[in-house]
């Protein structure tokens, strides 16, 4: 049985951000349909690759592509 890798899931998040612009964690969960654990792992992957930016406004974190 095939299981997506972290890189493939990170690619899905990247696509969501590319298509929809900056998003919160909750919005990413809804738009990507990924479990919360995969959201965080994928964000870590994208952050390590220097592909995303985190912005904190009024205690709400928004994630966008660089």
How is this structure best described in words?
With 66 residues, the protein is α+β, with helices and mostly antiparallel strands. The protein has a single domain (6-65), classed as Winged helix-like DNA-binding domain superfamily/Winged helix DNA-binding domain (Arc Repressor Mutant, subunit A, Orthogonal Bundle). It is 55% helix and 18% strand. It is built from 3 helices and 2 strands, in the order αααββ. It has helices at 6-20, 25-32, 36-48; strands spanning 52-57, 60-65. It has a two-stranded antiparallel ribbon. A hairpin with a 2-residue loop joins β1 (52-57) and β2 (60-65). α1 (6-20) crosses α3. The longest helix is centred in the first third of the chain and has 15 residues, at 6-20.
Outline:
The protein is built from three helices and two strands, in the order H-H-H-E-E.
Per-chain topology:
Elements: H1 6-20, H2 25-32, H3 36-48, E1 52-57, E2 60-65
Antiparallel strand pairs: 1-2
Helix pairs in contact: 1-3
Keywords:
single chain; 66 residues; two-stranded antiparallel ribbon; 3 helices; Arc Repressor Mutant, subunit A; globular; alpha+beta
Residues in helix, %: 40-55%
Number of helices: 3
- Any idea how many domains? 1
The averaged pLDDT comes out at 94
Low-confidence stretches: none
Query: How do the SSEs run, as a string of H and E?
Result: HHHEE
CATH superfamily: Winged helix-like DNA-binding domain superfamily/Winged helix DNA-binding domain
Our Rg estimate from Cα atoms comes to 11 Å
What structural class results from the helix and strand content?
alpha+beta
% residues in beta strands:
15-25%
Order of strands across the widest beta sheet?
Answer: 1-2
CATH architecture heading: Orthogonal Bundle
- What global shape is seen? globular
